[in-house]
Amino acid sequence: MKLLIVTLCVLAALIPSALSIDCYVCRNSNGNCMSGKTSCSGIACLKAKGGDAVAKTCTNSLGCNVAKSICKNSGDCEAYCCDSDLCNGGVPLKPVKVVTLLAMALAVAKYLM
After folding, report:
1. How confident is the model at residue 6, as a pLDDT?
2. What pLDDT shows up at residue 46?
3. pTM of the full predicted structure?
4. What residue ranges do the domains of the chain occupy?
5. What are the backbone dihedrals phi and psi of residue 10, each rounded to the nearest 5 degrees, phi first?
6. Which of 43, 58, 105, 106 is deepest in the core (most CB within 10 A)?
7. Distances (CA, A) of 78 to 3, 11, 85, 100
8. 3-class SS of residue 60
9. What does residue 107 show for φ and ψ, rounded to 5 degrees?
């Protein structure tokens, strides 16, 4: 039983480092600000853009939801959350993947006709 408790304590101590994520972090920046990288204990990276100002940081799911809600309600900004290392650097990949898949589908359809 003691061994089980010690093992659980060791595993619990390792979990935060295993769940860390690398994010770009900067505030009040004009442009894309891709120089400040940090390892975060959060589970997501956030990128918020309003006009020419860009802010990037680490966050959790609640922070993502709050940022998205604020931007949606105000209409003055956009917020994007992601969960892979340095994913808040540039353009979100999901729309790019959709466009790529659509282009590939159209090319295949044209080839088959």
Report:
1. 32
2. 93
3. 0.61
4. 15-89
5. -65, -45
6. 58
7. 49, 38, 20, 23
8. coil
9. -65, -45
Interatomic CA distance for residues 67 and 93, integer angstroms: 19
Residue 25 CA to residue 34 CA, distance in Å, equals: 8
Q: What is the pLDDT of residues 66-111, one digit of tens each?
A: 999 998 998 888 999 999 999 998 755 455 555 565 666 666 667 6
Return the residue matching tokens 């480092």: 17
Contact 77, 48 (CB under 8 A): yes
Confidence at residue 51, expressed as pLDDT on a 0 to 100 scale = 81
Q: Write out the CATH class of domain 15-89.
A: mainly beta
Are 21 and 83 spatial neighbours (Cβ–Cβ below 8 Å)? yes
Identity of the residue numbered 99: V
Give whole-number Cα distances, 69 to 16, 51, 79, 82, in Å: 27, 17, 9, 16
Q: What angle do CA 12, 15, 16 make, to 5 degrees?
A: 115
